[in-house]
Amino acid sequence: MEISKLFFLKNSFTKKTKTLCCPKKGGLCSEVVRKISAKKNEPKWMLDIRLQALESFKSKPLPKWGPDLSFLNVDRILYYLKPFKKQGKNWADVPEEIKKTFEKLGVIQAEREHLAGLGAQYESEVVYHNLKKEWADKGVIFCDTDTALQKYPELFKKYFGSVVPFSDNKFSALNTALWSGGSFIYVPKNVKVDIPLQTYFRIDTERLGQFERTLIIADEGSFINYIEGCTASALSKSSLHDAVVEVIAKKGARIRYSTLQNWSQNVSNLVTKRAVAYENATIEWVDGNLGSGVTMKYPTVVLKEPGAKAEILSIALATHEKQIQDAGAKAIHLAPNTNSRIVSKSISSNGGRSSYRGVIKIMQDAKNCKSFVQCDALILDDKSQSDTYPFIDVRNNDVDVGHEASVCQIDDEKLFYLMSRGLSKNEAQVLVVNGFIEPFVKTLPMEYAVEMNRLIEMEMEGSIG
Questions:
Q1: Are 218 and 189 in contact (CB under 8 A)?
Q2: Following DSSP, what letter does each residue of 239-299 receive, concatenated?
Q3: How far is 454 from 139, CA to CA, in rounded Å?
Q4: Across the strands, what pairs with 357?
Q5: Distances from the Cα of 139 to the Cα of 142, 225, 282, angstroms
Q6: Environment class of residue 66 by beta-carbon count within 10 Å: exposed (0-12), middle (13-18) or buried (19+)?
Q7: What percent of the chain clears pLDDT 90, i.e. is strictly above it?
Q8: Higher confidence at residue 437 or residue 154?
Q9: Residue 156, exposed/middle/buried by CB under 10 A (0-12, 13-18, 19+)?
Q10: Which residues pair with 248 in a beta bridge?
C-alpha cells in the first residue's frame, strides 16, 4: 500500500447529495447554533456553552498579528454538513460514494496493517469509527466526540473546554459554537497503546467550515500514540478548517500526537492545539504543515506540575506564491523541574512565506527549569520569505534557557558535489531538503517516514495540488 495516499492526496472526487443545515441570509446566528445542537440531541448545558461561545466570537476582533485574515467571511460558509444519516461501525455500512473516497486514500488498508483504531471524518461528521477489540477490552475509549458526549457525559463535561476555553481566542470561540465531529480518547491507568490510533479528516465541499473537536485524556502511567491526517479537494472557492484540540496527560503519562496536514490551497487552516502535562508526564507533539493557503497553528504545552516534559517538533513547507505557513510552538512552565524542547524547521520556495512564532514562558515559582528552542529556515529562491517571531518571558533566575536560529539557502557547493555524482539539480535539491527535515521524519513510523520523503520530492517538483 502507498501510505502517501492516506495523508496527501488532493484530487477531486465525485460529489453527492448531502443533508445541509444552512444559515439564513443573515449569516451566523443563534438559530444556526440551536439547529446544530438539536440535530445532535445535545443536553442543555452543551447548547448553553455553544451560545455563550457564539457571543464571544462576535465580540472578538480578528487577530491583528500574523497573516491578514480580512478575506474571511464566516457568513458565507456552510456551518454544518452531514454526509449521511448514520455512522458506520463496519466499513460496509458507509455509503458507496464516501467509501470510494476513503478507499482511494488508502484509509482502510492502513487500519488493517498499521493501526489500533481508525476514525474517518467526512465534512462535518465522522462517518466511520472502529477500535480493535484488544484495546477496547483494556478499557480504552476511542470514538467520535459527538458519541462521547452521549455515552460518557460526566467524563466529557469534566474535560471539555478545560484546556482551551471558548474565550481563549476568536477561532476557539467559533469552534465551540459550531463544533462537530473529532476524536475522543481516554486511556485508563497504566494502559499503553503502543500501536497508533488515527483519525483522518477530509473536506470535499466548497465554502465548508469544518469544526472538529478533539479531546484526549491519558490517565496515570498510560501511553497513547495518536496520528491525525488531513486533506481536501482542490476546489475553486475557499473553505475553513477551524479545529480545537485539548490534550491532558496525567501523572507519569506519555502522549505522542502527530499531525500531518496537507490541505489544498483553498483551505484556511486556523487551529488551537493545547496540552496540559501533570507530574512527570510527557507530551510529544509532532506537527507537519504542508498544505493550505493560510495556516495559523502553534501547539502549546502547559507544564503544570513538577517533572513534566514537552517535546515539540514542527515543520512547515510554503511552496507556492501567496501561501503563508505561520506555525510554531509554545511551552508554559508553571512548576519547578520542568523541561521543554522545541525544534522548528521551515522551507520556503516558489514565492511562499513561512514563519516561526513561538513562546517560552517560565513563571516565578518554576525553579530549576530547562528550555531550548532551535529554529531553522531554508529558503530555496529569491522570491520566498521566512520570518521568526520568538518570545521568551523568564520570571526567575534559576533556569537554563537557550534559543538558536538559522536561515540559509542550499549551498551551491553541495549541489555541485551531488550533481557531479550523477544527480540532476532537482534530485540534488531534494536530497539536501530531506537531510534538513530529517529530525522531523525520523520521529514518524517507518511507513510514514518513507512516504514523507516522497511527498517532499513531489512538492519540490511541483506535482502536488
A1: no
A2: EEE--EEEEEE-TT-EEEEEEEEE--TTEEEEEEEEEEE-TT-EEEEEEEE---SEEEE--
A3: 37
A4: 328, 389
A5: 10, 16, 21
A6: middle
A7: 55
A8: 154
A9: buried
A10: 217, 276
Going edge to edge, which strands form the sheet with 223-232? 125-131, 117-122, 192-203, 223-232, 254-262, 282-289, 309-318, 339-348, 369-379, 399-408
Q: State which H helix or E strand residue 82 sits in.
A: strand 80-82
Classify residue 232 as exposed, middle or buried by CB count within 10 Å of its CB (0-12, 13-18, 19+).
buried
Can you tell me the distance from the alpha carbon of 319 to that of 386, in angstroms, rounded to the nearest whole number? 12
Question: Could you tell me the three cell numbers for 22?
Answer: 444552512
Q: How many CA atoms lie within 13 A of 429 on its CB side?
A: 18
| Structural contact between residues 72 and 268, judged by C-beta atoms closer than 8 angstroms | yes
**Can you give the C-alpha Rg of the chain in angstroms?**
21
Which residue would you say has higher pLDDT here, 106 or 324?
324
Rounded mean pLDDT of 400-419?
86
Q: How much of the chain is helix, strand and coil, in % rounded to 5?
A: 25, 40, 35
Q: Nearest 5 degrees, angle CA 227-CA 231-CA 235? A: 170
> Is 22 buried (19+), middle (13-18) or exposed (0-12) by CB count in 10 A?
exposed
Q: Which three cell numbers stand for residue 436?
A: 534538513
Helix (H) or strand (E) run with residue 355 in it: strand 353-362
Q: Where are the domains of the chain?
A: 4-297, 411-465
